[in-house]
Amino acid sequence: MTSPAQSPILVLGGTGTVGSRIVSQLASQGIPTIIASRNPPSSSSPSHVNFDWDDPYTWEPIFISKSSSSEGTTTEQDQQPSRPQPTPQPIRSIYLIAPPTLTGDRPMIEFIDFARARGVHRFILQSASSVEAGGPLMGKVHAYLRELGQRGEVEWGVLRPTWFQQNLAEQSYHKESIRSESKIYSATEDGKIPWVSADDIASVAVRALTGEEAPNTEWTVLGPELLKILSEVLGRKIVHVDLTSAELEKRHTRFGMSEEYARMMSAMDTAIKFGAENRTNDMVFSVTGVAPKKFRDYAMSVKDVWETRLQEMGIEGKT
């Protein structure tokens, strides 16, 4: 029988920015992992399973072991080899990440109950620093997990990270404007953000997923600095273009975001404008024992993605 320590951890969104890093860190510790996502990993992985929040038919196979409960045998009554019978797969804990829709709380809560009925007892939710328990989307799931935890029905934890450092280099609406226009667009005005590394979020998540004791609370995960340093790193002036909420919504929709989700993202920028993210803490260090990564170091490591064509040719500024 599989012991809890040997049971796999299910990482929903396991090919995403944080999920892929959780998977990598778990693998480095020799912890078996199931990668669940709509999109397969860039490299072949036998532990990947197709998962779609909107398709419950993709849920059940996750909880069925690929190995059979018995080998095929031949009997006098049946000369044909018996079919391997699927067996339940014990899952140690689940990392939950929401779909990009404002109605995603319903399937998430249904999935939590679905997994509980199959023996899962620990759930770690990735929410956001700007979303309180009981608020929209992840906030409703946060409140549900807290309620279950207070009744002693689950072990739980909610990570509330601030904005990712990786957003500026990996999300096209930031990356391309920095690269081609030397501009960053937002509706934050002069609001500050303690940009946090996705690597640090993943490290905190791994502790929450694997620790002997679950958090059974929320952890706000912030970066160590409130800095604007891209101009210094890139050697050219990067200008912040402050948009109205409506202008930012239109910009998000041009990059493929739904109108309702763009509206929510714009509201988050407005909250930053009024100081909602003007803070830091020591959560990363207190949980992992490692100092959080600085944005300057991240920006230096990926600055090539923001280089303009002229910079690549080494002729910027020449006449």
Automatic annotation (TrEMBL):
<dbReference type="GO" id="GO:0009820">
    <property type="term" value="P:alkaloid metabolic process"/>
</dbReference>
<keyword id="KW-0560">Oxidoreductase</keyword>
<comment type="pathway">
    <text>Alkaloid biosynthesis; ergot alkaloid biosynthesis.</text>
</comment>
<comment type="similarity">
    <text>Belongs to the fgaFS/easG family.</text>
</comment>
<dbReference type="GO" id="GO:0016491">
    <property type="term" value="F:oxidoreductase activity"/>
</dbReference>
<feature type="region of interest" description="Disordered">
    <location>
        <begin position="68"/>
        <end position="92"/>
    </location>
</feature>
<dbReference type="InterPro" id="IPR019901">
    <property type="entry name" value="Ergot_alkaloid_biosynthesis"/>
</dbReference>
<dbReference type="InterPro" id="IPR036291">
    <property type="entry name" value="NAD(P)-bd_dom_sf"/>
</dbReference>
<dbReference type="InterPro" id="IPR051604">
    <property type="entry name" value="Ergot_Alk_Oxidoreductase"/>
</dbReference>
<protein>
    <recommendedName>
        <fullName>NAD(P)-binding domain-containing protein</fullName>
    </recommendedName>
</protein>
<keyword id="KW-0017">Alkaloid metabolism</keyword>
